Amino acid sequence: MTLATNQLPEIDVEGWVCRKCGQPLKVSLVAVTYMGSSFEVELPGCPNCGFTFIPPVLADGKMLEVEKMLEDK
Amino acid sequence: MPMHPQILRDFDPHCVQDEPPACQTQCPLHLDARGLAGLMAEGKLKEARKIIDRYLPLNGLTAYLCEGPCGRHCRRSELDQGVDVPLLERVCVAQTQAARLMPLPRSGQAVAVFGAGLSSLTLAWELGKKGHQVTIYHTGPAGGRLVGHPGLPAQAWLETLEWLDKLRVVFEEVAFSPAALAEARAGSQSVYLGFDDPALTPELLGLSAAEAEVSPVSLLTSQDKILAAPFHPGPPRFVDELAAGKRAAGSIDRLLQGVSPEVARVAEETYPSRLYTSLADIPVKSTQPPADPWVPTLAEAQAEAQRCLPCQCLECVKQCVYLQHYLTFPKKAAREIFNNISTALGNRTSNILALSCAECGLCREICPGQADTGQFVHQARQEMVYGRHMPISAHEFALEDMAFINSPEFSFFRHQPGRETSAYLFFPGCQLPASLPVATESVYSHLQNHLEGGVGFALACCGAPARWAARPKLTTRMVETVRGLWASAGQPRVILACASCAVFFQAELPEIPVETLWNVLAALPRPAGAAAGEVLAIHDPCAARHDQATQASVRELAQKISQPLEELHFSGQLARCCGYGGLAAAANPALGAQFAQKRLGDTDKPLLAYCIMCRDRLRREGRPTVHLLDLMFPGQPPAEAAQRPAPGLSDRQEGRRRFRDNLLKKLWGEEPPLATEMENIIINIPEEVAARLETRRILRSDIQRVLLDARERGPIFSHPGSGRQLAGLRPRQVTYWVEYSLCPDGSYDIHDAYCHRMVVPGIPGEGRDSVSVAEGFNPEGGRA
Fold it and tell me: What is chain B's mean pLDDT, rounded?
């Protein structure tokens, strides 16, 4: 399952960089898993080190919504 | 794994809300009079007509004939007069068109009917619609007792005959005789004898009284193929004739289809309704007879329809915010929960319904059928756990907290200082020391001073949250911890401060002798510093609803310290839940708050609680509330104690630890363990961030853990423009993020902290927690 980026809230990553390599963040397709389900979502992160950046608006919103959905599955 | 249907079958009959009301069960035609009155009251005549056409035969002719036996059984008749349902029918029938007749194609089956009374016409109507060929043999004018009826409009009668004509019903004048009967019998599949036509008697057809006797169920006589109208003692009633025609038609239709006419017809009988309806607070509203009873006006009918109560139970729903919130009643909720658990494919969208009940038991106390929704919900939760469909996040926070309190590093038992044995063991529970540490210490001191044989102290959680969450393995683990503490104390009598502990001990640890703190205190001298305040409304915890001795002790204690009380209607056995019960507030915080608000609606007085969770939850919803220990062992004046804010999640956890360390040092001279590096991390959290953390259930210790990791590993992201850092860690099944700035003094300013349960790439941490491990959940792979 791929969530189109237009389903996700605007993520403001302006000014954030990877602390390890100093690279600015870039949006890429990453694998997200929960309750045995795995799907790919476009999320910002460090293109070198593979860290994913999650802002509060995403954690409290779409992620929580999908978590609840998967728990009810 | 589906839920066993027997659980639902056992529960179902207790809830009577969807039982039909008396007007319907006592109507020989089972008219939905309540539904009719509801629609008529709103002036919805077309919809009302659909009800009439569905239940009543002969194109609404019934409206002019029915004697309205429902009126005698109407609950309103106990207040003033029963609702005049035939009046409603008459207005509806006169002002609306009947539904178009849609007879089935001809069946080729012939039915002969003798007598043209109302039962015969009804039977012809019913069987004609089914495509059977009905011939009515009669002498003189058709209609039987209808002929010359003062209220029957000629037009309605003519229309009925026209409708019967459309159903291909044939009227044939004949001289009633044994030969005529024999001929009809030979030429048809069944014969019906409508003795309600005064022109027809058994003798005329050559039948003895015994031969004309019928089975009350099928109306079949002992003669092959012959059915007959039953004999009713007393003056004849049209409604019985209508019912007889309908019943005989049902029998004939069954015979033609090869189905037994005798079985499964109980629903056609009249019977007392099981529906409970309270008449409390229903004002008297006498009927106003219409100017012309045969031609009432719509306004008169609407006024009459508005007198319908309407009958329904909903006794528990009136008091339960959970059932109100889900717009349901116990039987409906049980079915939804059952279906939800039995879902094989797709989402279990009603999980939250099973998790939001406080299992407080108030519904059972109120219910006329003793339906125990809480118990049903609890069984459902067990099935959810067994079937591995219990949403992990619902109870995880509470269970993690519980597991930590009962860990060997935290829970403890000590004999009274200076003693080697304990006659008693004071068990304050997990929340009292966290929220009210000074009073907990004071009451322990009071117990030591007045009880003989030594009073030991145990700090632990009884395990009630594991039971509410229906986690069997965790419950067992908690029970073993508590039993272990009790055994190491030498198996003394346990003094419990918490009503939920008392219920849990009784259920899970019945071998342990227990007494509530309040019963013990009531027998001891009044504490020297006890203080009373203004009048307080007393709030019993729902867990103590059946503990009358404790309820009495608490009131006795209040009296002893001269504390005036206001008694609420919903107290004692009818105690309301604060929302903590059954972990309702853990799974559904917004609804949990509504439980407390419902309680606050009972009085405008400040409250007195003797369960600390009740106290804190009622206070959190805005009402000044004191705990009884606030009065007996005051650390501040009662009015101030009532205003003390309810501690947050972190306050509670830290308060409990501080209590533990202080008590161990003060009474047993034990030095607390040195603060760990993590605990030494100083964090500064602005108020608005703290409020968000509370909602997100993030503890200050969670933040410290992330920062400790960031100290060693470095944060993941940084924002050079603002100097802020973002650290992430997944120490258990939750990923925490902390956005912070490092201050020159080495402390941390916390700008935000948030969490999610999904796993995203690159975040360090173990991702396992004790609850999931205990219950066999594989954190990353879903259900093990």
Answer: 93
